[in-house]
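Sequence in, structure out.
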Amino acid sequence: MFTLFAQLRTKGDKKIKSLRKEGFIPAVVYGRGAETRSLLLEALPFEKIYQKAGESSLVQLVIDKKEPINVLIQDVQIDPLSDKIIHVDLHQVKETEKVTTEIELKFVGESKAIRELGGILVRNLDKVEVEALPKDLVHEIEVDISKLATFEDVIHVSDLKISETIKILKNPEEVVALVQPLQVEEVVGEKTEEEQIKEIEKAGEKKEEKEE
């Protein structure tokens, strides 16, 4: 299990902008029956854990060196300009209560329709919403695209291989991935200098005709 260290954020702390410059990320931890608390996370350690844990792996959160609690990384806000994490929501969970979260899909294998027919992979879903006990959650679900041998083949949600302890909250018939033929669009090049001159001459002739 991953371990994340944090400290309580108080009203006396510096402004958020200053804290971010010093390498901290503001965060909040909440949960049913639990106190909502404002926190500060060190940016670099959090980014490393988030990269590995995602939003579906259980994380031990240690606040001010006290007893750890189990959380899921629920929501990560990213600045669209700097691409840096600016805020994090952590959801405190209980081992005996099921939670709802999203698990990312990892596409593996080689498709015959891509390799031999020159098609392109169309991914309709990148993640799926699931319900499970925290201990049963996984970081990702593998999708084997080797099943896509022709343009008629389709991978549905019902085809995903996953433990019976995890319930996927998606329509079983929803399409996860397929392969489509590569559509080559006709590219019209720029007109040559000679063609442009002819068009100008024609336009001039029409203008003269109107004036006459």
